[in-house]
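Follow-up to my earlier ticket, as requested here are the two runs.
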Amino acid sequence: MLYLCATPIGNLEDITIRVLNTLKNVELILAEDTRHSAVLLNHFDIKKPMMSFHKFSDQSRLDDVIDKLKNGAEIALISDAGTPCISDPGYELVKACVENNIEFTSLPGATAFTTALTLSGLSTQSFLFYGFLPQKKSAIEEGLSSLKAVKSTLIFYEAPHRVTKTLSVIKEHLGDRNIALCRELTKLHETVLRSTISDAIAYYEENSPKGEFVIVVEGGRELVEEDVDYAKEYNKYIESGIDRKEALLMLSKRTGVPKREIYNLLNKD
């Protein structure tokens, strides 16, 4: 049996009793980074053999684990933080278990993207978890283009040194949407920045990003007809007593078109 054990994403008290009991009773623990996981195991006084299992592990390591499972071993898989197989290499092992008819189960627990979603203040009714965007520009553009019409809340993971660049690319392809940037989740310095993408970019240009980020982005809105008369609609807001800035914002929210684009349309002559 293989046990997929969710571990804390920050606060060690978030581990479940079931996971603790499982880690104490298996024969072997597979860890993404054995040095990192040793901190967790030592904290709970768990003394079990560990073996590294990560995205750079070769086929022989995978075959070795499968052989152990076929011979009746009880093995637990943990990642550096959160639930195995979510943006980590555990998927390959699970796939091999399916192909070899090896029994496995998942022990639920902490996951960064669900924690961030509930903290975001954005819609939780429907969401799409994307994980890390690719690094090549063409692949990023292709991925984001496919998400432009998605009405569900979007969730991404990102490293601190790429946050500002990633936000700029998201804004370019999806528009200036509402957003929540969550970092240091469940830890002492947990921070959630709720703003527009533009304001978030400006903030992190002045404040160096630190820690791993979960980026939660507002889903796309239903677009109005292409032949909408923006000037007419804009003037209706002005005539009702709404100031120019608020009128642009309201028209943007109703149509799904970024404020800057509407402004340019209104002033193109």
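Run two:
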Amino acid sequence: MIMLGLRFMDDVPFRDVVIHGLIRDEQGEKMSKTRGNVVDPLHVIHGATLEELLAGAKAGGAPPAALESIARQYPDGFPRFGADALRFTLAALAGQGSDVKLSVKRIEGYRHFCNKIWNAHRFLAPHLQEGEGREARLAELPLDLADRWILSRMNAVTRGVDEAFAGYRFNDAASLLYQFLWHEYCDWYVEIVKTRLAAADGEAEKRTGRILLGRVLEQSLRLLHPIMPFLTEEIWQQLPHQGESVMVAPWPVADPAHDFPQAVESMDCLMEITREVRNIRSAYNISPAQRVPLVVKTSDAHQDAMLAAGRDYLVSLARLAHFEFGQETSKPELAATVVIRGIEVHVPLADVVDLDAESSRLQKELSKADAALTRIVKKLGNEDFVRKAPAEVVSRERAAQTELTDHRAKLKASLAHIERYVKR
């Protein structure tokens, strides 16, 4: 390409060359037809049956042992992952100075990421209204805490992705966009706006939510386009936008007027409280449909103001029946308690959990965990198993041991907490 550029254009077509690591299989082995571990990108993109995988390997001269390996690894072949999922996987794993271990599971995970973005657009599309697109001025919108938070986070991600691309750190750019779109935009802001749109009143707030959902998604798609060109172009064309294609749309630039560090700090705290309430629900087997009370003891007026601003978010996202907070609140006699940034968070259990039934359930769960953990410890203690079993099997057993150990510790803590009151 360089010689052709010099010959016909009197200039080189590019001046920077990125040398990436070798793409290996998911065990870190070099891909080889004789091993049967070659992953054909066209099979990943378009999907392939086991018969098609074997036919391709035979055409490449793979021996019978390699064909057996393919049949063992991919008994059902490949589903259709698409080009964007494969491109994103390669970008996400392309850390500088290291080879890429290409895992089909990771490709599948990033296909779910593609679906997540599609679903966010499907939710937004029916709510988009004519004239609420690029023409709306954000300075004129009534921004609440969540609105300021998402704009500030969009700014931070824009700066981060820009710096990552400038430094050829494609994996950092992919990670920033993945975390932001999935875990902040979809998991939090979309859910907050859903509640707002379902309310009977608050037309100005609904309009703000619609506009910001579209603006943030549109800007995110422009940032994501170099990695996922097909999905981003398709969705971008259906959003309010300027220009003919996302390919030639202006590169996003952070707006300092939309930096709200205090809103980010407050939302981080509110999200942490919500996560802890959800963890308590899971630990005590409380149905997601059942609303629970929440008592929060604060230590200053700043925390009071933060909880007042985020009250509606907590009630909706944590599914609260009653929410009490303040510097004078007291801890209920029986409650699951966590401390978050100096704030005492109590979920009263007396009227929510049948203590005797829950104690019995936890004891049974603990017995199952003990038995499973004993089996795994015995298996890993067998030197023949560790030496002869495939590395991925041993690794999976060790991961299961770690997970069971953590689960057992949580069960014991929950059981000890409940039994203190059952025995009264």
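The only thing I checked on run two: The longest helix spans residues 391-422. Let me know what else you need.
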